């Protein structure tokens, strides 16, 4: 628990993909209510994801549930009342969050400022056909209360949540409804969406991965860029001597391309002399097994030197116009210079295979 970013969800989904007979699928709803959303931004947003892809969206400005994928827009994808019904539920949620935000601020003695309530609700169908369900609430980015559908109990993660836990457990119908939603309704809808969106959701585009290094102020920044992949969930990490370095990596997140695929960039700072100990590991639904990529500092370009030698030889042959002996002696000297060149640059060359650092 604890990862309330969208990326964290994607990774959660991916775990266990490899070596599986079937692929796991997930349906998630992510609600966010904010006291201070920023000017012009909706204070309440409700987003639905199938397999990590946004497929429906609602916000407190438009107050309407709208499709976000082509397959959800297709005529007959869902029953005619679907949009109206979903909109009614979302509007009612919006009212609940208005109240919850107030309650939580009171409980935490927060009289003002910027506060956020988030809720993730969802279910997974795993490779072996079993299902899993979640219902978790966070306040200001930290876990607040979570539902355990098997025991039909709630876990209060902070003291301020104990009152909520008691209330929800005293009213037995709350747990009953949550359990039914997670085990039945959610799973049924996930199967429906999987069927409707089959063509789009089963699209697989493997990432193109590029690794490069750049040295500045005695620090080597290694970058690993995965480009053009689909679906969105991906796990890109830096390994040093085979050990994941999750603490030290930085990522700007996963961003969409105009063709519906995604890209991401993950960097790590290293000691320049350790450059060859690092590997970028990429795990994605399109790959049979995780891919490993290392930085190959570009070799000093030999072509100009070789050309130089040939030109010199030809020049000598023509200009000198003399014998075989002079020609050989010059070629020999040039040959030495050519051998020295690679040693000067060696492995610490930090210009890399690409000096640009794409901004995300
Ligand atoms: C709110 O929803 C509408 C569509 O319902 C969308 O056009 C708009 O971009 C959304 N606003 C934000 C900030 O996402
Ligand atoms: C909030 O304030 C009340 C009364 O001032 C106090 O009893 C309570 O412990 C405070 N709660 C927190 C979380 O600080």
Global Rg: 29 Å
Strands of the widest sheet, in order across it, are: 4-3-2-1-5-6-7-8
The outline comes out as globular
Number of domains: 2
Strand content: 25-35%
Give the N-to-C terminal Cα separation. 27 Å
State the major sheet: 8 strands, antiparallel
Low-confidence segments, given as residue ranges, are 5-21, 322-360
CATH class descriptor of the largest domain: Alpha Beta
* CATH fold title of the largest domain: Murine Class I Major Histocompatibility Complex, H2-DB, Chain A, domain 1
* Mean pLDDT value: 82
What is the tally of beta strands?
16
| Helical run tally | 8
What would your notes on this structure say?
It contains eight helices and 16 strands. By secondary structure, it is of the alpha+beta class. The strands form three sheets. Strands 4-3-2-1-5-6-7-8 form an eight-stranded antiparallel beta sheet. It is globular. The model is unreliable at 5-21 and 322-360 (pLDDT under 50). Helices cover 32% and strands 31% of the residues. It folds into two domains: 25-202, MHC class I-like antigen recognition-like (Murine Class I Major Histocompatibility Complex, H2-DB, Chain A, domain 1, 2-Layer Sandwich), CATH 3.30.500; 208-294, Sandwich (Immunoglobulin-like). Bound molecules: 2-acetamido-2-deoxy-beta-D-glucopyranose (2 copies). One 2-acetamido-2-deoxy-beta-D-glucopyranose binds at residues 108-109. Residues 1-22 form the signal peptide. Residues 207-286 form the Ig-like domain. The chain crosses the membrane at residues 302-327. This is MHC class I antigen alpha chain 1. Keywords: Disulfide bond, Glycoprotein, Immunity, Membrane, MHC I, Signal, Transmembrane, Transmembrane helix.
């Amino acid at each position: 628990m604890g990862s309330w970013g969208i990326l964290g969800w994607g990774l959660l989904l991916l775990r266990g993909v490899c070596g599986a007979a079937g692929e796991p699928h997930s349906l998630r709803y992510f609600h966010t209510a904010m006291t201070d959303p920023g000017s012009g931004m909706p204070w309440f947003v409700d987003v639905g994801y199938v397999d990590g892809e946004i497929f429906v969206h609602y916000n407190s400005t438009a107050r309407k549930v709208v499709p976000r994928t082509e397959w959800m827009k297709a005529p007959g994808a869902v029953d005619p009342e679907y949009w109206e019904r979903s909109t009614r539920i979302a509007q009612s949620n919006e009212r609940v969050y208005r109240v919850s935000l107030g309650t939580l601020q009171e409980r935490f003695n927060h009289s003002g400022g910027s506060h956020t309530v988030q809720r993730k609700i969802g279910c997974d169908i795993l490779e072996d056909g079993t299902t899993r369900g979640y219902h978790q609430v966070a306040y200001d980015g930290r876990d607040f209360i979570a539902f355990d559908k098997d025991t039909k109990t709630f876990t209060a993660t902070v003291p301020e949540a104990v009152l909520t836990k008691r209330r929800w457990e005293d009213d037995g119908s709350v747990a009953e409804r949550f359990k039914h939603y997670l085990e039945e309704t959610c799973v049924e809808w996930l199967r429906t969406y999987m069927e409707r969106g089959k063509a789009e959701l089963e699209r697989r585009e493997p990432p193109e991965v590029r690794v490069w290094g750049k040295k500045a102020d005695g620090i080597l920044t290694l970058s690993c860029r995965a480009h053009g992949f689909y679906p969105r969930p991906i796990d890109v990490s830096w390994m040093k001597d085979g050990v994941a370095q999750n603490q030290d990596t930085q990522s700007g997140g996963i961003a969409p391309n105009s063709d519906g695929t995604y890209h991401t960039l993950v960097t790590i700072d290293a000691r320049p002399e350790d450059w060859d100990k690092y590997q970028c590991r990429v795990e994605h639904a399109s790959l049979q097994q995780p891919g490993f990529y290392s930085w190959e500092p570009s070799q000093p370009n030999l072509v100009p030197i070789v050309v130089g030698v040939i030109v010199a030889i030809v020049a000598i042959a023509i200009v000198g116009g003399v014998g075989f002996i002079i020609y050989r002696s010059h070629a020999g000297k040039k040959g030495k210079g050519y051998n020295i060149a690679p040693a000067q640059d060696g492995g610490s060359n930090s210009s890399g295979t690409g000096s640009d650092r794409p901004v995300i």
